[in-house]
UniProtKB/TrEMBL annotation:
Name of one Pfam family that matches: DUF5641
Molecular-function annotations in GO: nucleic acid binding
Transmembrane domains' residue ranges: none
Organism phylogeny: Eukaryota, Metazoa, Cnidaria, Anthozoa, Octocorallia
Name of the protein described by the UniProt record: Uncharacterized protein
GO annotation (BP), single: DNA integration
InterPro entries in the cross-refs: DUF5641, Integrase_cat-core, Integrase_H2C2, Retrotrans_Pao, RNaseH-like_sf, RNaseH_sf
Species of origin: Paramuricea clavata (Red gorgonian)
Entry-linked Gene3D superfamilies: 1.10.340.70, Ribonuclease H-like superfamily/Ribonuclease H
């Protein structure tokens, strides 16, 4: 800090805002604000710089490693780091010499970094790192490592094995920091001998007298540390806060627990807060009676946290390093095991081979031990996620894992990266056919599937217009009915449906695909069907007592009956059209002819034996004959009686259904694929969402939030997914299961 002499401030410099800051137990000091703005800019709007601060949790965890602990602080750390001269102009401020406000203030300028400056921690930590780097050759590795890893900004927390080591390390640290222009002071330790080795002026205020009969509580990065008992504890001060979201958040946030010792208890309050957030309650609105009761119960238990004490050092007092490592219950399959350097190793027959000793006598490990799993996982990642045999060969360069092939196979199969690149899509045993496919003696088209195809160009005057086909398929008899639609809006589809109902009767159930199931080439068809007014369609069907069922999106195999019929229709139309352009009347006629041809296709095997009955076709039920009428036969007068003709028609329908049951249904018995039951997809599974014509590396991740179980066999064949942007419904053949929730819970249980 120095007084600025000269012509004064330039118009774009400005000064920092400052005022006295009064603190209890401390001298009055001058506070300089770096938040004040000049020309709409603040000193804290500069670049923050890289985050060079060590992890708070890491420093505290390393502080708990060994029995002898000490703590120190760098005096005025930010003020020991100079600011470049070209940047000092932004650190000017006005102040009265000797605090005399009766005279004009004078201009001063800071030459060091300020407390509260956004870039100060980065500059100071950089200077600390450079101190360690520049003196690496002059100090031992432990001192350098302490400076690099055991400082959290200006606080040093370190634990060592014995007092002598601690005294030497403290002396070396003090000298090392002096090399960088820093002074390490306010020393605290749980070792009286270590404190006695330090000058009284360098000790913290609470331990200057070395009276161990008193309770000395220090703050180790905010954590209460009783240096006499060497334990961590809590001091709870409950502030009166209203029972609102804002008040609950304030109380929960006031519990400082960086190491998570009481996180299970705090989690109860966070769960209450989460429930209030889900209910869309305002920040200052009164909470419900149930939430208030839970909150008050939690508050009543909060003071009991002060009873919790945790040993600072997590290493047992009787801990000692043992060198002998052997698993005597896992060596039955080892080749002549030997003890080498207190390790149980493989004897084998390679004693004279030109290999390293570790490759000839590998250390024996049991496959169920966690260390063996870590070793297999390490070599799997080291080898670039190679396969079973290569990873096993790498592990056997140093280790012989009993039944290692099983372990390596499990590690490879459980690898997330490998599953993402190589796992197949999920599958499940093919479901039984629904009742609509196997129920006889119902009128044709009682159970109907509907789909659209096209468009077809039709000549109308001098212009070409588009027409579409609407195909209705009887799910039981496989008969089809085709209507022509002038467009694919909702009204045009409903008119086609009304014509179908008028000619074929009222169906009980209609199944159809979602608009997203159409192939990518039929973009116009897909977009039109997506724009259908579903409410209007459902209202019309409700009046006719028709149940409408949609297949899951992108699950074209759920409507394979319809897809196959559309494929057949297109095949026949290509043979009849020969690239011709028809008018409306010709297109209607063509559709009727195509319908007749397809309804005459055989459903059963066509026999070469003339003595066998003709193959069963849908026309046997629709027309009571296989196809076009034959030449007229001989009629007798009795055939004209109405009752006789009704009995004849009924008899022919019964013949159709008997043959349908005996000849057609057995063909549907065999499952062509998906023959074996698989593990069901579960809620919480993490999956990869398959996307056609997209590289696998670009497929998005999703989480299963709902499963749809089949009522008859309990298998899951479609799920609801939540991605980062939307909620989707997909069949399981369109997902790849990466992490099963059952597997994850099992791993967590093993870890505990």
């Amino acid at each position: 800090l120095f007084r600025v002499m000269g012509s004064g401030l330039s118009p774009d410099q400005g000064t920092l805002n400052n005022q006295p800051l009064l603190k209890y137990f401390k001298n009055n000091i001058q506070s300089i604000s770096v938040h004040a703005k000049v020309l709409h800019l603040s000193r804290n709007e500069t670049n923050k710089g890289p985050d060079l601060t060590n992890s708070l949790t890491g420093v505290l965890t390393r502080f708990r490693q060994s029995p002898v602990a000490f703590m120190a602080d760098i005096e005025a750390m930010f003020h020991q780091v100079r600011t470049p001269l070209k940047d000092c102009d932004v650190l000017r401020f006005l102040w009265w010499p000797n605090g005399d406000t009766c005279i004009n203030p004078e201009e001063f300028q800071m030459t060091v970094h300020l407390f509260g400056g956004i870039s100060s921690p980065s500059y100071a930590n950089f200077a600390l790192k450079r101190t360690a780097e520049g003196n690496r050759e002059n100090f031992d590795a432990e001192t350098i490592n302490t400076l690099e890893r055991n400082f959290y900004v200006d606080d040093c927390l370190k634990s060592v094995e014995d007092e002598e080591t601690g005294i030497n390390l403290a002396s070396n640290l003090y000298e090392l920091l002096q090399k960088g222009g820093f002074r390490l002071t306010k020393w605290t330790s749980n070792s009286r001998k270590a404190l006695e080795s330090l000058p009284e002026s360098e000790r913290a205020a609470m331990v200057k007298d070395l009276d161990v009969s008193k309770v000395h509580v220090e703050r180790a990065l905010g954590v209460r540390w009783d240096i006499v008992s060497d334990k961590f504890g809590y001091k709870i001060t409950i502030k009166d806060q209203p029972a609102t979201r804002r008040g609950i958040l304030s109380v929960v946030s006031s519990i400082y627990d960086p190491l998570g010792f009481v996180s299970p208890f705090v989690l109860l309050a966070k769960t209450i807060l989460q429930d209030l957030c889900r209910s869309n309650l305002g920040w200052d609105e009164q909470i419900s009676e149930d939430a208030l009761h839970r909150w008050q119960n939690w508050l009543s238990m909060l003071p009991k946290l002060e009873r919790i004490v945790i040993d600072r050092c997590f290493k047992p007092t009787d801990f000692e390093l043992r060198k002998s490592i052997a698993w005597l219950d896992e060596v039955e399959n080892a080749e002549s095991p030997e003890i080498i350097d207190d390790l149980l190793c493989v004897g084998g027959k390679l004693r004279h081979a030109p290999l390293e000793n570790t490759a000839k006598h590998q250390v024996i490990l049991p496959k169920q031990h966690h260390v063996a799993t870590l070793i297999a996982r390490h070599y799997h990642q080291l080898s670039g996620h190679s396969g079973l045999e290569y990873v096993l060969s790498l592990t056997r360069q140093k280790f012989w894992i009993v039944k290692g092939r099983l372990l390596v196979r499990r590690v490879v199969n459980d690898c997330f990266d490998c599953r993402r690149r190589q796992s197949p899509v999920a599958e499940q045993k093919m479901a039984d056919l629904p009742k609509s496919r196997v129920t006889p003696s119902k009128p044709p088209f009682t159970f109907t599937g509907v789909d659209c195809f096209g468009p077809f160009n039709v000549r109308r005057g001098r212009s070409l217009v588009k027409r579409y086909g609407v195909i209705f398929t009887c799910l039981t008899t496989r008969a089809i009915h085709i209507e022509v639609a002038s467009s694919l809006d909702t009204d045009s589809f409903l008119n086609a449906l009304r014509r179908f109902v008028a000619r074929r009767g009222n169906p009980e159930e209609i199944r159809s695909d979602n608009g997203g199931n159409f192939v990518s080439g039929e973009k116009e068809l897909r977009s039109c069907i997506k724009e259908w007014n579903q409410d209007k369609i459902h209202q019309v069907l409700l009046l006719k007592n028709i149940k409408w069922i949609f297949n899951p999106p992108t699950a074209s195999h759920h409507g394979s009956v319809l897809e196959r019929c559309i494929h057949t229709v297109r095949k026949v139309m290509r043979a009849l059209l020969h690239e011709q352009t028809l008018n409306d009347e010709s297109l209607h006629t063509l559709m009727c002819e195509v319908e007749a041809i397809i309804n005459g296709r055989p459903l059963t095997k066509v026999s070469d034996d003339p003595r066998d009955s003709e193959a069963l076709t849908p026309n046997h039920l629709l027309l009571l004959r296989a196809g076009p009428p034959l030449p007229p036969g001989k009629f007798v007068k009795e055939d004209l009686h109405t009752r006789r003709r009704w009995r004849q028609v009924q008899y022919m329908a019964d013949v159709f259904w008997r043959r349908w049951l005996k000849e057609y249904l057995p063909i549907l018995q065999e499952r062509q694929k998906w023959n074996q039951p698989r593990k069901n997809v579960e809620v919480g599974d993490v999956v990869l969402l398959l996307q056609e014509n997209t590289p696998r590396s670009s497929w998005p991740l999703a989480r299963v939030i709902e499963v749809h179980r089949n009522r008859s066999d309990g298998h899951v064949r479609s799920v609801k997914l939540k991605t980062s942007t939307s909620v989707l419904e997909r069949p399981i053949c369109k997902i790849v299961v990466l992490i099963s929730v059952t597997w994850a819970l099992k791993i967590l249980k093993i870890g505990k």
